[in-house]
Specification:
The complex is a heterodimer. Chain A is mainly beta. Helix content of chain A is about 10%, strand content about 40%. Chain B is mainly α. In chain B, a hairpin with a 3-residue loop joins strand 3 and strand 4. Classes of the chains: A mainly beta, B mainly alpha.
């Protein structure tokens, strides 16, 4: 790091390089840290998490009992140990609480004054953060699995909603009505995601195993349907034509630059697609255990080189490099199925929610102090915590 | 050292003991202490042990883990990094992956693990994040109550509660039923109890009521052996006896007052034995008190003769009255009815009410409700207990009854049976309500009009005079007595001859040959088998002309009649059936006394006790103590067989030789296989002999049956058979629409 800093100072290096190197290092050293805790509010499994993109300070969580909680992630106490406090929560006693499990929460991309939540009670609610009242409620025919708002859109204000019906609905916040219906899927839509590169491009994944890319300006049909065989095999077997996965597709995530799309399906596979051509890049991630019957929320790091994907893998979180498919590590800490994880890009922190009601914060491990001449002094301090000490009995034969 | 570590872990975890062996544990700890490498090695070894599907192994491994966890940071880190799996394996957090059998050890493991997690959390929870997460997970998701010693999860607790509730409901239902039953039955019980109580009163008056004049003469308290008889009347008469004794003491010799009551007692007791002393017969009419006072008077006259008469040596006697507490009620004619009813009531109490009351109390206490009902039931039970105790204390001897039963079966007493039959209707004219026990008494004095009213007056409880009257009766009953013959002559019952009359008639005529024939008859009867009644007996000695003939009705149809109708068909079989009887003769079972005694390979003799043929050693032949056949040809045959057997096995396969070769080459040539079953079993050594054998546990009759029944081949066979049946049906009824479909 010192070398990088020196190079940066000398102007030999691109300033982004230092940042990228440090980011990568930090992501690679993510661990469950005893210094960071998230307050335990939820009484049941956590389905979804979202960190607001403006400051990266506030996090929303939606529980399977319909509760939504807002956390403050910033540690302003100047102490290493910090418990993320819940600023408020939409508890069971709240008059406008979701009746059933909250499947997705998302901040309004440009401001913390508003967030959206969708639930199995067939509604999508637009909340005013400050008064904690729903500003608007959209009702749907079927349960809502997922919704997404474009993070970069400036010309429209559409929320894509994937429900039990195969039609993808687009709700316009400006008019307060669902403006579009995108037809093409055969079964329920489990995941929707707007491209972070093109504001009108939407990707949807459905239980029929297909992933479709849409341009919402052209409502007549989809742009393309992703094909896991890149069109080679589809000639032979028309049935398997144009499917992205052999099972249901329950997770979608664009890379930060929007050039690639990552999908996971219940066939225990993860695939990386070129989002502009719709081509399967054929990166092999191995088996990605996925038994979820609902949408799965996973995250991709930002600003690292290479980029990493954090994917729930049973009760652990698997960390892969996106472009090579290498499994870096498994983050163990949850005691039940992990439902979602979200990456905080500013401090390279990862938050994960699981069925065991825990939200765990994965924080980069602090650098080991470099042993130097003062090691005699610092060594005893290393073992500040008596719990880390060995307690072998002193006598030899005692053992 | 690694080798030793693995050995130690294996030994520790396969001991099957609830506690670890301290010596090995110490060694293990010493090895672990030496380096971190060893700790991680031990961790992996232990984890594999924890993954075994055996609760005892897991438990031991868990104990080792506990020891190391407390000591090494390295070990803690390793374990906590995989804490999920650890919890799954020890606490059984994954319901799809329950703890393995045996169940008790699994429960113990679970308890210990939960306790350990709690302790660790208290001690290290701060430092190890995942540990505290695990603790909270257990606490909040699995809802494990760490205070709860049973370490049950919520689901288990709820199941328990449901069970409890169901039980409660059942109890409630039962209690309701019991209440109803109690309502119905308590009245009955009370009635029975009162009945019994009254009977007791009748049989033995309450000591408080001893002032009454009427005292049951039958009631006697048995005293010690030597003085039993004389004491009885006095003791039964209660408090006034001592005074009378006292007053007698000063003027009369002791022996006299001793003696008299003896004779007095004999008479008063109404014993059926014939009286010996003529002088006492003369005292018939007198009351007992008179007798007592007349006794001394008689003595005064010539007590010397009296002493001699009674075979007494001295006249100086001391009288010891030992009033024993145990009471004996003798059954006789007077109290048969009472005793019968007491017995019935007692039987009813013991067989019917006692168990039901017992069950009520049990049920009510278990249900823990209705203290009113419970109290009621307990009261009833106590009452019944006292009644039954009283009954027991009474110690009623049923001799008379038994004798009577025997008599009834005895052919000698046929006339007496008759006697009973005869008397009843006769008496009915006079006294319709004569109690059973007095029947005999009156039976023979129908022509004594002055006595009838007396008898009537004394039906309830026998008065003092009854004894004397009874004596008179007895005289008449006694065929050797002159009184009896006189009586017989006197009463001439026209329709039904008196038993004595008949007896005397026969005795006079055929008295001499009778005993002989009777004895013969008796012997024959004793020999003859007892057969159940059947048709053959019903038609015994009769000839039935119509038997075995089948009548056929002619057709009543106007024109549609069979060509010829034989109206009567004789069936021999039916005729035979009426006269024959099948008696199966199975013979008698004789237990086998001999043993096979063929020499066994282990040197003992075969212990099988087959009748003819031993399944292992063939026909059973006489053998001597060492198992060698006694007969020469048997011996030769056995030798031959042995030789043949050896010849069948090639020379080089001599088991000894083979074993040697095996030992030398280390190859299994199957020498143990050829050597019978006993060795095969020994050869199959258990891998871990200290652990509970799970296979053994799973080897229930059910599982064995399952293996047989659900065997693939068996299933296939059954399927085939069923298909065949179906097929046949199909072929047979193919033309019918409802079978044609399938």
């Amino acid at each position: 790091m010192l070398g990088l800093m020196a190079a940066r100072q000398a102007g030999l290096d691109d300033p982004a390089r230092l940042r990228r190197a440090e980011c990568t290092r930090r992501v690679l050293s993510l661990e469950l840290n005893k210094d960071r805790d998230v307050e335990r509010i939820h009484g049941s499994g956590i389905n979804t998490l979202d960190i607001e993109p403006v400051e990266g300070r506030y996090m929303l969580s939606g529980g399977s009992d319909g509760v939504i909680v807002l956390y403050d992630l910033e540690n302003l106490s100047r102490k290493p140990s910090y418990t993320c406090k819940a600023l408020f929560s939409v508890g069971r006693s709240h008059p406008d609480v979701h009746k059933f499990s909250v499947e997705t929460v998302q901040w309004y991309p440009h401001d913390t004054g508003m967030f959206t939540s969708s639930s199995f009670d067939k509604t999508l609610k637009i909340w005013d953060t400050n008064v904690l009242q729903p500003a608007d409620i959209f009702h749907f025919e079927g349960t809502v699995y997922s919704h997404h708002m474009s993070p970069i859109a400036t010309k429209h204000c559409l929320i894509a909603v994937g429900t039990k019906s195969p039609k993808v609905q687009l709700c316009d916040l400006k008019s307060g009505s669902s403006s579009h219906i995108l037809q093409g899927h055969r079964q329920e839509v489990l995941a929707v995601s707007w491209s972070p590169r093109h504001e009108y491009v939407l990707a949807t994944g459905s239980a029929d195993g297909k992933v479709k890319l849409w341009d919402v300006r052209r409502a007549s049909g989809c742009l393309s349907t992703l094909d896991q065989y890149n069109g080679e095999k589809s000639k032979a077997s028309s049935e398997a034509a144009n499917t992205a996965h052999n099972g249901r597709v329950n997770g979608l995530c664009y890379t930060n630059d929007g050039l690639h799309l990552l999908t996971v399906g219940t066939d225990d596979r993860m695939r990386l697609w070129n989002s502009s051509t719709g081509e399967n890049t054929l990166v092999n991630y191995g088996k990605v255990c996925n038994e979820s019957r609902k949408g799965l929320k996973f995250a991709i790091s930002c600003g690292c080189n290479p980029e990493f994907a954090f994917v729930p893998y049973g009760s652990t979180i698997a960390v892969y490099t996106v472009f090579t498919g290498e499994l870096i590590t498994m983050l163990r800490g949850h005691y039940s199925t992990v439902n979602c994880c979200v990456f905080q890009p500013h401090f390279q922190e990862l938050y994960s929610g699981s069925k065991d009601c825990n939200i765990l914060a994965w924080i980069p491990a602090p650098r080991d102090p470099i042993p130097d001449d003062t090691s005699e002094k610092s060594l005893p301090q290393q073992h500040v915590n008596p719990a880390y000490e060995d307690t072998w009995s002193s006598s030899d034969d005692e053992g | 050292m690694d080798q030793r570590l693995a050995e130690l872990v294996e030994e520790l975890t396969t001991s099957g003991e609830p506690q670890l062996e301290p010596g090995r544990m110490k060694e293990l700890k010493r090895i672990c202490k030496s380096s971190e490498e060893h700790i991680s090695h031990a961790y992996h070894l232990l984890l594999t042990r924890l993954r075994e599907e055996h609760a005892e192994m897991r438990f031991s491994a868990f104990q080792v883990v506990q020891e190391l966890f407390a000591r090494s940071h390295q070990f803690r880190t390793l374990l906590i990094s995989n804490f999920q799996e650890f919890l799954e394996l020890t606490v059984g957090t994954d319901h799809e992956q329950p703890l393995p059998p045996p169940k008790e050890v699994a429960q113990k493991l679970r308890k210990a693990a939960i306790k350990a997690v709690q302790d660790w959390h208290e001690k290290y929870g701060e430092a190890y994040k995942q540990l505290s997460l695990g603790y909270h997970f257990l606490k909040q998701n699995k809802k494990v109550d760490f205070q709860d010693v049973h370490a049950r999860t919520v689901a288990e607790r709820r199941r328990e509660e449901e069970k409890q509730k169901r039980l409660e409901n059942i109890y409630k239902e039962k209690v309701k039923r019991t209440e109803k039953e109690m309502e119905e039955m308590s009245q009955e019980i009370a009635d029975t109890l009162t009945e019994m109580e009254n009977c007791f009163q009748l049989l033995m008056p309450d000591p408080l009521n001893f002032g009454m004049n009427e005292i049951d003469p039958e009631l006697s308290k048995q005293t010690s052996a030597n003085e039993a008889r004389p004491a009885s009347p006095f003791s039964s008469q209660g408090e006034f006896t001592p005074s009378s004794l006292g007053c007698m003491d000063d003027e009369q010799p002791c022996c006299s007052k001793d003696i008299l009551p003896v004779s007095q007692c004999v008479t008063a007791d109404g014993n059926e034995e014939a009286d010996e002393k003529p002088e006492q017969e003369e005292l018939d009419g007198g009351k007992r008190s008179d007798v007592r006072f007349s006794g001394p008077a008689l003595d005064d006259d010539d007590y010397q003769t009296f002493v001699r008469n009674h075979g007494l040596i001295s006249h100086k006697y001391t009288l010891d009255l030992e009033i024993s507490t145990d009471i004996k009620v003798q059954e006789n004619e007077d109290n048969t009815a009472i005793i019968n009813s007491v017995m019935d009531a007692h039987k009813l109490l013991r067989n019917k009410f006692w168990p039901s009351v017992q069950s009520w109390i049990q049920l009510l206490t278990r249900a823990g409700v209705n203290d009113d009902q419970l109290r009621c039931a307990i009261e009833l039970k106590n009452k019944m207990e006292t009644a039954m105790k009283k009954y027991k204390e009474m110690d009623i001897s049923f001799k008379a009854r038994k004798r009577k039963v025997m008599k009834a079966s005895d052919d000698d007493d046929e006339d007496e049976d008759e006697d009973e039959f005869v008397e009843v209707p006769e008496k009915e004219g006079y006294e319709p309500h004569i109690p059973d026990h007095l029947r005999k008494e009156y039976g023979l004095e129908p022509q004594a009009p002055p006595k009838a009213p007396v008898a009537k007056a004394s039906t309830g409880a026998a008065p003092l005079s009854s004894g004397t009257r009874l004596r008179g009766n007895e005289d008449e009953l006694d065929p050797t007595c002159a009184a009896a013959t006189l009586k017989l002559l006197r009463d001439k019952l026209p329709k039904l001859p008196s038993p004595h009359a008949s007896e005397s008639a026969t005795s006079e005529t055929a008295n001499l040959e009778d005993p002989d024939s009777k004895r013969r008859k008796l012997e024959e009867r004793a020999k003859a088998p007892l057969m159940p009644f059947g048709l053959d007996l019903h038609y015994w000695g009769e000839d039935q002309p119509s038997a075995g003939k089948i009548l056929k009705f002619t057709s009543e149809h106007r024109f549609w009649a069979p060509s010829e109708v034989e109206e009567e068909v004789e069936n021999k079989e039916i005729t035979e059936m009426l006269k024959t009887r099948y008696i199966t003769f199975a013979g008698k079972f004789e237990p086998v006394k001999h043993k096979c005694r063929a020499p066994m390979p282990d040197g003992t003799l075969c212990e099988r006790q087959d009748r003819i043929k031993c399944p292992f050693h063939g026909k059973i032949i006489p053998r001597d103590d060492s198992g060698i056949p006694i007969n020469a040809e048997d011996r030769a045959r056995e030798e031959k067989m042995k030789f043949e057997k050896q010849a069948a096995q090639p020379e080089w396969r001599d088991p000894e030789f083979m074993r040697e070769i095996e030992a030398a080459t280390g190859l299994d040539l199957g020498s143990s296989k050829s050597n019978g079953k006993g060795q095969k079993k020994k050869g199959k050594k258990q891998k871990y002999p200290h652990l509970t054998d799970l296979k053994q546990q799973a080897n229930t009759s059910r599982s064995r049956l399952e293996k047989k029944v659900f065997n693939k081949g068996a299933m296939k066979r059954v399927m085939k058979a069923m298909n065949r049946v179906d097929q046949r049906k199909h072929e047979k009824f193919a033309n019918q629409f409802n079978y044609a479909l399938n």
